[in-house]
Amino acid sequence: KPVLRAIFLSTEFQDASYYYTRYAWPVEYVVRALREVGYLGFSVNDALTPLVNMGQTLYEPPDVAGWDLGTWWFSTAGMLSRMNFAAQLASNQKFNLRDASRPYKTSPDTLITNFALQRLTMKMPDTAVYNALVDYVKAGGTWTGSDTQLTNKAGGVVHLLAGSPDYQFL
Predict the structure, then answer these.
(1) What is the pLDDT of residue 102?
(2) Is 70 a residue whose pLDDT tops 70?
(3) pLDDT at 169
(4) I need a surface site. Which of 35, 132, 134, 164 has the fewest CB within 10 A?
(5) Over the stretch 129-142, which tens digit does the pLDDT of each residue have?
C-alpha cells in the first residue's frame, strides 16, 4: 500500500503534460470505447475479431515479454480496423446515444462539447477538426435537435471522434 500511495500521489503521476502521450494498445482502445460509447447488445466475442485485426490477440502475446509499446500498432490495416470498430459500436449504440444526448440538443456546439467530448476521454480536437464536426452536425438542414437529428448526429459525432487519431492516445 505505501508504494502504490507514493506512486499515485507523486507529481509525475499527476502531471497533466503526460496525458494523451502514449498510443493505446488495441485492447485498451476497445475496452475504453466500449465503456465510453456503450456496450449493450455487444458481447466479448464481438470485440475479439477487431482486436486481432488491430494486431493484438487477447491472452496471446508474441512472447513472454508481452506486447511492445510504441507506434507499431499503427498500420493502415490496424487503423482501418479501429475506425470500423468505432463505426460498428456507434451504430449499435445510436439509440442509447440519442437518449443520452437529449439534454445537449440545443445547438451543434453543445452536442459536440458538452455531450460527445465529455463522454469520450480525449484531448480537445484542434480548431479545424472541431469546425468540421460542427459542419457535420449542421449538414442536412437547420439544426432543431429533433430525435431524428439526434439519432443520426449523436452517434455520428461519437463515431468520428472515437475513430479519430486523437482518441488513439492515453
Answers:
(1) 97
(2) no
(3) 86
(4) 35
(5) 999 999 999 998 89
- Residues with Cβ within 8 Å of 54's Cβ and at least 6 positions away in sequence, in order, are 26, 29, 30, 73, 78, 81, 82, 85
Q: Write phi, then psi, for 169 (nearest 5 degrees).
A: -105, 145
CA atoms within 13 Å, Cβ hemisphere of 137: 29
How many Å apart are CA 117 and CA 160, to the nearest integer? 11
What is the average pLDDT across 114-123? 95
Cell of 148: 431524428
| Closest listed residue to residue 138, CA positions, set 160, 99, 111 | 111
Q: Please, what's the largest Cα pairwise distance for the chain?
A: 58
